[in-house]
Specification:
globular
Length: about 280
């Protein structure tokens, strides 16, 4: 049953790809935009994440106006994230009903969250992005020190736990449109509810792959993104994902995470300081 998710995922991804490419026609990404997409999605496939690292690079390179950062992140990383999902979504067994309902919750949250974020003022976006970077750095520190809940053995949820998890995914889907990674809060939630942490991976990847086209289409339609940068992220990311998944497969990431944590915290300070300005 889980493999049947590939059909709607393929349709949704194709629809988004059409909307994105049509809206971005004529955009000319620079080599640095493509390289950014390649590196961040390569690291995302290996488990580092892409939103926080991309935002930090945006700040250091002054690539994107702050108001357009959430839309550019979502629009640019959608196709590479879908590619990851096609590779990994069936790699770990998980209860089909749990997976489908949690994905549906994440998509609903992202749809309404993106509509709200696209209309935020520049100052509000700066403060939200700065806060997202702080949360991302804290998440990376938790992962570095193995502080995530250990979880249990269950591969699915039922009753009030399932209802609570769906509601949680609605919230996580909504806030992910600000540039806050979906993976960490979702993994924490399912682990606290007694699920096997490994079961979080198809839930996280499937939810992200479905919610991002829904959110990104909103940003694209409202022109709340940078087309050249987003196109560069997509092109570079589509090359970085298979290299990480099929060729490199793993790296010693502990030292690299410290570098990412430092860069993300510095970018958070820059963003929050600029958030006081109009």
């Amino acid at each position: 049953m889980v493999t049947a998710l590939y059909i709607p995922l393929a349709a949704l991804t194709a629809f988004y790809g059409f909307v994105f490419l049509r809206a971005s026609a004529g955009a000319r990404p620079s080599p640095i935009h493509i390289l950014t997409g390649f590196v961040t999605n390569f690291l995302d496939t290996l488990g580092i994440g892409s939103f926080a690292t991309t935002t930090a690079l945006f700040k250091f390179g002054a690539m994107v106006p702050d108001r357009l950062i959430p839309g550019t992140l979502n629009a640019g990383h959608t196709l590479p994230t879908a590619f990851q999902a096609f590779i990994y979504i069936t790699s770990i067994a998980v209860d089909a009903r749990t997976l489908i309902l949690l994905i549906a919750g994440a998509v609903a949250g992202a749809w309404f969250g993106a509509a709200a974020v696209a209309g935020f003022s520049r100052r509000t976006v700066r403060l939200c992005v700065g806060g997202a970077l702080v949360i991302a750095a804290a998440t990376l520190l938790m992962r570095q020190f193995e502080l995530f809940p250990p979880g249990g053995e269950a591969l699915g949820l039922a009753g009030w736990k399932l209802a609570a998890a769906v509601c949680g995914n609605v919230v996580f889907g909504a806030i992910s449109t600000l540039g806050i990674g979906f993976y960490a809060p979702c993994m924490t939630m399912v682990s606290l509810m007694g699920m096997n942490p490994a079961a979080a991976f198809p839930i996280m990847m499937g939810s992200s792959a479905f919610l991002m086209p829904a959110a990104s289409a909103q940003f694209v339609q409202r022109k709340a993104y940078s087309a050249p940068v987003a196109l560069g992220l997509a092109l570079g990311g589509l090359a970085g994902v298979p290299l990480a998944a099929f060729v490199v497969k793993s790296l010693p990431l502990a030292g690299l995470r410290w570098l990412v944590i430092g860069a993300v915290l510095y970018a958070a300070v820059l963003t929050l300081r600029s958030g006081d300005k109009t």
